[in-house]
Amino acid sequence: MQFPIMAETKPLISLKWEPKLPGLSLDFKTGSSSNTCLWASKSEFVDGLYLPPNDPNKINKMIRKQLKDTTGSNWFDMPAPTMTPELKRDLQLLKLRTVMDPALHYKKSVSRSKLAEKYFQVGTVIEPAEEFYGRLTKKNRKATLADELVSDPKTSQYSCSEEAKSIAAAASSRGKIEKSK
């Protein structure tokens, strides 16, 4: 049985493998220091090759620096948001929400861990169709929680009355101090 002789053909798809390495900058002449955690100064190179440190603590520290800043796979790799002044203000308002309305009572801070303060997400609540008449209109919605509280007439009325009470208390105590002299 004879097999037909086929002419050599080049493969249509060229497969190429490259290792996944972090970006290197081997500019020793210019003296630019790269911030990659795998590559260090010239003193750690032996014959032009990088030698990892023998200390396992240093190796673990380098690996931790390389990991992305997320909560982990158990929390769906939620990233830490970038803290803007508006976001800081909203978080501070959430912490001080008991002062805004005396009728509402909240639990104390549920989480005292730094992890809960670092990882969170901000979203928008979409009301169902049944709450058509009870929800805010697009005109009344604001960009941040602070803007919403400033524009809310109930909170502004309560804060004005509390301010008037504190001014009256300060004025009455000032009169008592002056009379005692």
UniProtKB/TrEMBL annotation:
Residue span(s) of domain Fcf2 pre-rRNA processing C-terminal: 68-158
Protein localization: Nucleus, Nucleolus
Keywords associated with the record: Nucleus
Key word DNA damage present: no
Highest rank taxon of the organism: Eukaryota
Alphabetized GO MF terms: RNA binding
GO cellular component: nucleolus
GO BP field: RNA processing
Pfam families in alphabetical order: Fcf2 (PF08698)
UniProt name for this protein: Fcf2 pre-rRNA processing C-terminal
Species: Arabidopsis thaliana x Arabidopsis arenosa
